[in-house]
Amino acid sequence: MTAPRRGPRPLPLHLMLGASRGWVALAATMPSPTGSPSWSDAWPISRAGGAERARILARLAEGAHAPEAFRAAILRRLLREDRALVAGIAAYRRHPWRRDLPDPPTIWSEGGSRLLDYAPGAAGPPVLFVPSLVNRAHVLDLTERASLLRFLAREGVRPLLLDWGWPGEAERGFTLTDYVAGRLERALAALPGPVVLVGYCMGGLLALAAALRRPARGDGGVAALGLLATPWDFHATPEDASRAAAIAALLPGLEPVLDATGTLPVDVIQALFTGLDPFGVAQKFRAFARLDPASPRAALFVALEDWLNDGVPLAGPVARETLGGWYGANAPARLAWRIAGAVVDPAAVSQPAFVAAPHRDRIVPPASARALAARLPAATLHAAEAGHIGMVAGSGAETALWRPLLAWLRGL
Question: FRET partner for 94 with CA separation of 20 to 30 A, picked from 75, 250, 253, 286?
Answer without folding.
Answer: 75
